[in-house]
Amino acid sequence: MSIELSGLGKTYQPDEWVLHDVSARIASGEFFAIVGPSGCGKSTLLRMIAGLTPITAGNLKINGRVVTDLPPKERQLTMVFQSYALFPFLSVQANVAFGLKARKFPPAEIDQRVTRAIQLVDLTAFRDRKPRDLSGGQRQRVALARAIASEAKLCLMDEPLSNLDAQLRVKMRTELRRLQQQLGLTVIYVTHDQVEAMTMADHIMVLHDHQVQQIGTPLDLYHHPANTFVGSFFGAPRMNLLPARVSEATELTLAQTLKVALPRPLPVADYTVGIRPNAITVLPAGTGAPCATVQTVEYLGAQTLLETQLPDGTALELIGVAPADYRPGDRVAVQLTGTLYVFDAQGRARMTLEGGVVHGNDAQTVSVADQS
Ligand SMILES: Nc1ncnc2c1ncn2[C@@H]1O[C@H](COP(=O)(O)OP(=O)(O)OP(=O)(O)O)[C@@H](O)[C@H]1O
Predict the structure, then answer these.
(1) Which CATH fold topology does 238-368 show?
(2) Res 65 pLDDT > 70
(3) What residue stretches are annotated with the ABC transporter domain (predicted)?
(4) CA dist 41 → 36, 53, 121, 328, 355 (Å)
(5) Of 32, 66, 183, 229, which is most buried, counting CB atoms within 10 Å of its CB?
């Protein structure tokens, strides 16, 4: 099932657009994630695709057919909700069979589809249990079996793993992805969790501020973020954002401290520069320019996260080198050794330089100024 969203918009109150001009093409058999912070309109968009919320503007096509104003049952899709929406008084088997009975399928076919779906999600031994006697993960799998039994090729999922504990969530991610590929389903999957989207999806749509910020593969979004929102949404620890200025065509100064030679000239202006913590090397004090002061230290086992401050007061998050014992107040030298992303001053768009990014790991193009 392919899906095409063309300029979709939604208002609940007159003139208050909760979604504006959303366009995307989702290929058949694709796992497509919609991510963004709370309230950005993810569930609204999914419900518009399902036909549960009317579309205010734009067009929706499923398999080439315009379905913008069709009721849900004519869209040949199924939906899995965060709450699972199971009937508490029915067994697993009856829950999975419910929709097929309502659609008046012959009993033999219902039995065959239900048995197969329950088998696929590995719940055969639990088929006579009621939802209250199942674990969270098992209930989630019942909801999934119901979607599978419907044999709809398009499955919409709204935060289906968010009620599970962390360990089970990781396991279910793999299972969901395996089932989706095995059954050739097209899945549109809403989540606020960037890791979930990154690990499961073929393509991701990032929503923020009522509109699409970027659509791309997980690697695209990580390596070529369109703006500072996308840059800091993906990746942990988060991308650092620093105020920057080009005062001579090829010289960029970050936070009034760190100087970078650009491979191509940029207009003299203010910019915002993004640097991921793993693109910065922390040197022991004394071996380089001590130009950041440690504020807080967080030991994470293999990594030590350092919240530091540059001389102009800009915060910079760094990854400390293993055995070194850092303390608040320590001075550390920092060297830019990875990719720098240059955005306009407001962070709305990334500047395109050669290859789209500035590489700081070429020793000739990066220098660190000692301001202390
Ligand atoms: N029925 C409604 N009537 C009026 N406003 C609504 C309605 N449903 C949602 N909204 C508003 O629309 C915006 C988008 O809500 P939506 O639930 O789609 O966001 P979301 O990204 O799914 O958020 P979350 O991650 O918190 O579930 C919010 O500002 C919300 O308050």
Answers:
(1) OB fold (Dihydrolipoamide Acetyltransferase, E2P) (2.40.50)
(2) yes
(3) 3-234
(4) 8, 12, 30, 40, 33
(5) 32
Residue 58 pLDDT greater than 90, yes or no: yes
CA 20 to chain centre: 19
The pTM is what? 0.89
Cα(241) to centroid of ligand 1, in Å?
Answer: 29
Distance, in Å, from the CA atom of 110 to the CA atom of 97, rounded to the nearest integer, reads 6
Confidence of residue 368 (pLDDT cuts 50, 70, 90): very low
Phi, psi of 238 (to 5 degrees): -65, 155
- CATH number at 3-229: 3.40.50.300
pLDDT at 164 over 90: no
3-state secondary structure of 258: strand
At a CB cut-off of 8 Å and minimum separation 6, what does 31 contact? Answer: 177, 180, 187, 189, 200, 201, 202
Domain range summary for the chain, segments of one domain joined by +: 3-229, 238-368
Closest approach atom of ligand 1 to CA 44: 18
